[in-house]
Design goal:
There is one protein chain. The protein has 505 residues and is mainly β. It folds into 3 domains: 37-156 and 281-406, no CATH class; 161-272, no CATH class; 419-496, SH3 type barrels (Roll). The strands form 7 sheets. Strands 1-2-3-24-23-25-21-22 form an 8-stranded antiparallel beta sheet, covered by helices on one side. It has an 8-stranded mixed beta sheet with strand order 12-11-18-16-15-17-14-13. Strands 29, 32, 33, 34, 35 and 36 form a 6-stranded antiparallel beta sheet that branches. The longest helix is centred in the first third of the chain and has 19 residues, at 4-22. The protein is globular and about 70 Å long. The N and C termini lie far apart (78 Å).
């Protein structure tokens, strides 16, 4: 009997302790959050507390992506926690295919931004979409993560106007793209992406063309093109909703006339975007290309270059503050958050101290700082792990996330062409999952399941399945639980999967 008690304790300890021990990938203190993503807190003299997440660049199922406050540019700000929750279980376009889902594991705050509007400074690429163009001829652009899993810190960029093109592939008509996600000036042609807001402003007195794309509008230089189909051409000044895989091409003056003359519903179009990458002197060519960039954020000081610490005269760099940074080497990408402004808890770091930590402790070779101070926040698996200097999370403009890619799941409950009925009053959305509502339909409203060129009908997003439906001219995405068949399937269609209902009801 005496020997049974310790045996029970031993068994219990193995049951309780082993999972906790397995959460650590090695003896150096790194805790495994998910395969390919680790976390560690460093308590350094000073005192200084540093919170670090690292992503294994060779782990194929983990990626980086940016987050946007409120899901739309200029719609206000949001906490890092709020953005992480917004994009968790949302679909992504990693691998140039829509339908896989995000499992957000780590998130940090991102760019410096306009504190009033929430518009980020610099540029931004989100899930392959070039949402905010980087300014031309500035020595620093931002951190870049590409579809081929490569990463770099961009320096000076330029957008050669002749290389940004919108082309009708039927008749060869091609126009320069003058801007992204801003109102067109006289005679200009601009593109609005789904990250802009849920619909265009309606202030343009020219012509707007709604285009459904086969992939996000990102950095794809000529002669390659991103293909799309014109779905609507509108001359009036009414706002146009922008579904999750669409753009609106807006023209003023001569550009409006060209759109009206050369583009019709059903036309196949191609779009090309190019960034000319230069070194920080804005003269010499840079060897690294932006083509197929998947995620990018504007940053501040590039404090590490090929293992060399960079020094700055700026007082903002040399004083100790809370810091947020992204650094990397050939093996890992690191998110770094340093707490500060509390003498008893953590003093913060200068940019030089941050560079030294990233190089000597993390063995990083490149690094760039993001917005810091009260904005500095790290979120890990549902919790903020640092102590923001404001005493609580500050709302910010955007962020960067480490994500486990979960495989696509699809429902086969309905088929394209089938007539359905709304079982309850429900919203219609711009896309499946985390996209904005655009309208509502009443209970018993009849609709039809539409085919979708990107094959996301029935896709799982944010915990439910989604379908593209036309409700008497109102087109959008609706949750499966709100739908039912309007008519029973015939025996033949039930057996062979024919979704077209031919009874005319």
């Amino acid at each position: 009997m005496k020997f049974k008690v310790p045996l029970c304790i031993l068994i219990l300890s193995l049951v309780l302790i082993t999972p906790t021990q397995n959460a650590y990938s090695d003896s150096s203190g790194w805790e495994t959050l998910a395969p390919g993503i680790d976390y560690q807190e460093f308590r350094l003299p000073g005192p200084r507390r540093v919170f670090v997440a690292r992503m294994d660049r060779s782990a194929e199922n983990v990626i980086l992506d940016t987050s946007i406050a409120q899901g739309a540019l200029g719609q206000g700000k949001e906490t890092v926690s709020g953005m992480a929750e917004r994009y968790d279980q949302a679909i992504n376009n990693w691998g140039e295919t829509w339908g896989n889902r995000n499992h957000v594991v780590v998130a940090i705050n991102g760019s410096f931004h306009n504190s009033g509007t929430g518009i980020p400074h610099g540029g931004m690429i989100h899930s392959g979409w070039y949402a905010v163009p980087y300014p031309n001829w500035e020595s620093v652009s931002g951190f870049v993560w590409k579809q081929d899993r490569s990463a770099f810190i961009g320096e000076c960029v330029n957008h050669e106007s002749t290389n940004q093109r919108f082309t009708n592939l039927y008749n060869g008509e091609s126009r320069r793209i003058n801007g992204i996600n801003r109102e067109p000036e006289e005679h200009e042609l601009v593109v609005f992406t789904p990250q802009y807001i849920r619909e265009t402003s309606g202030e343009n007195t020219g012509v707007e063309v709604l285009v459904e794309l086969t992939r996000p509008l990102g950095i794809v230089p000529l002669p390659e093109m991103i293909l799309g189909i014109v779905r609507e051409v509108r001359e009036d000044d009414a706002p146009i909703p922008i579904p999750f895989d669409h753009i609106v091409v807006s023209g003023d003056g001569r550009s409006a006339e060209a759109l009206l003359e050369n583009y019709r519903v059903g036309a196949v179009v191609g779009l090309s975007m190019e960034i000319t990458h230069l070194q920080e002197d804005c003269r010499r060519s840079h060897p690294l290309e932006w083509t197929n960039a998947y995620a990018s954020l504007g940053g501040g000081f590039i404090f590490l270059k090929d293992g060399e610490i960079q020094y700055f005269d700026d007082p903002g760099a040399n004083n100790r503050h809370p810091r947020t940074a992204i650094c990397y080497n050939d093996e890992f990408i690191f998110f770094v958050v340093v707490d500060g402004r509390n003498d008893a808890y953590s003093l913060g770091m200068s940019v030089t101290q941050l560079a030294t930590f990233c190089r000597d402790t993390l063995e990083a070779t490149w690094g760039i700082n993001q917005d810091g101070g009260g904005s500095s926040t790290m979120w890990v698996n549902g919790e903020v792990v640092n102590s923001p200097s404001d005493g609580s999370e500050r709302e910010v403009a955007n962020g960067m996330m480490m994500i486990v890619v979960e495989p696509m799941e699809r429902s086969l409950t309905f088929w394209p062409g089938e007539r359905v009925i709304a079982q309850q009053t429900t919203n219609i959305y711009l896309g499946p999952g985390n996209y904005a509502p655009i309208a509502s339909v009443a209970k018993n409203t009849k609709g039809i399941i539409l085919p979708h060129i990107n094959y996301t009908n029935g896709i799982l997003a944010k915990g439910t399945y989604w379908w593209k439906v036309d409700f008497e001219g109102i087109v959008g995405w609706i949750v499966e639980d709100a739908l039912d068949l309007a008519n029973p399937r015939s025996m033949i269609s039930a057996i062979f999967g024919w979704g077209i209902n031919t009874d005319g009801n």
